[in-house]
Amino acid sequence: xxxxxxxxxxxxxxxxxxxxxxxxxQIGEPLRERGLKGKALIVSHPVIFKHYGAILSxxxxxxxxxxxxxxxxxxxxxxxxxxxxxxYDAALAAGLERQSTILALGGGVIGDMAGFAAxxxxxxxxxxxxxxxxxxxxxxAIGGKxxxxxxxxxxxxxxxxxxxxxxIDPTVLQTLPGREFRSAxxxxxxxxxxxxxxxxxxxEQLPRLEHxxxxxxxxxxxxxxxxAECKAWVVQQDEREAGLRAILNYxxxxxxxxxxxxxxxHYLHGEAVxxxxxxxxxxxxxxxxxxxxxQQRQVNLLxxxxxxxxxxxxMDLPAVIRLLHHDKKVQNGHVRFILPKAIGQxxxxxxxxxxxxxxxxxxxxxxxxxxxxxH
Length: 375
Fold this sequence. Notes:
Elements: E1 4-9, E2 14-19, H1 28-33, E3 39-44, H2 46-62, E4 66-71, H3 81-94, E5 101-106, H4 108-120, E6 127-131, H5 134-140, E7 145-150, E8 153-160, E9 165-168, H6 178-194, H7 197-205, H8 217-237, H9 252-261, H10 269-287, H11 292-304, E10 311-312, H12 317-324, E11 337-342, E12 345-349, H13 354-362, E13 365-366
Parallel strand pairs: 2-9, 3-4, 3-5, 5-6, 6-9, 10-13
Antiparallel strand pairs: 1-2, 7-8, 11-12
Helix pairs in contact: 3-4, 4-5, 5-6, 6-7, 6-10, 9-10, 9-12, 10-11, 10-13
């Protein structure tokens, strides 16, 4: 049977990432074994909860938990303090105490909001990630970043709050819309570029990538484990993004600006990250950091994942540049970029001027790409 446990060991927090197919119904007992008990609030999205809420609730109840539920909308435009207020209201109604647990059943947005609520309710209560999207499994659910968006920028309001457990059951991906599966592949490719050339090559050699049904179970399991190991290693080196952890934002600087400029309605997060990775790669070529051939490998792999690789022609690039200066990674007025130096190696720099970004990215603008299909 496929099963893996990846430990995350931090000075103030130690937890495991468990990856095991067909395991959602078994989560209750491992939580109790880790000292969690009493009241539990499941935060989820109505569609996700319809699929998996009963399974999770029953497992928790069988392990002795008293279960309440809070359903909130998913999607970046709903990742706001208003949505978190709804979670606070549910926590109050459920009588959550400092020993109670909030569980996030859903994708990255649900995890970010539920985690932020857990970080701030009673100044911090236990939190468990139960990701149901590929994006959350490989990235968002691991590492303790929580938060919500401000109208002027993404994730500007937040806190670091490590989960007590990350429980990944890959079989729940069978209900994930195809567009969301493809979107998440950008984060998978990201790990190959920033740290793991073997993973990048592994992805290049797979016959088909775009659809969940195209993947063999062992291949998907291998990729999930490798991504979790990469993320865990980086987080253990730099829990609060003082230095190294910033490499996980490869492609995100431009992506966040594109998402914000389009009011989170045009791109799914991974789609914006794919464009951002291409944009970062183009800057790296212009600076002589890596070769045009390596950039083309990145473009080709992202395209095989069914992801956009051009900045839409109608996008206002000067407005994009202005938004970059609201990014969390700005220091002393300089936008910091994570740029590739080779497949498997990136570096952080503030040497990219606005003029260079404008010049390079204008060459990567293309005809508007049609909105990807949901399935």
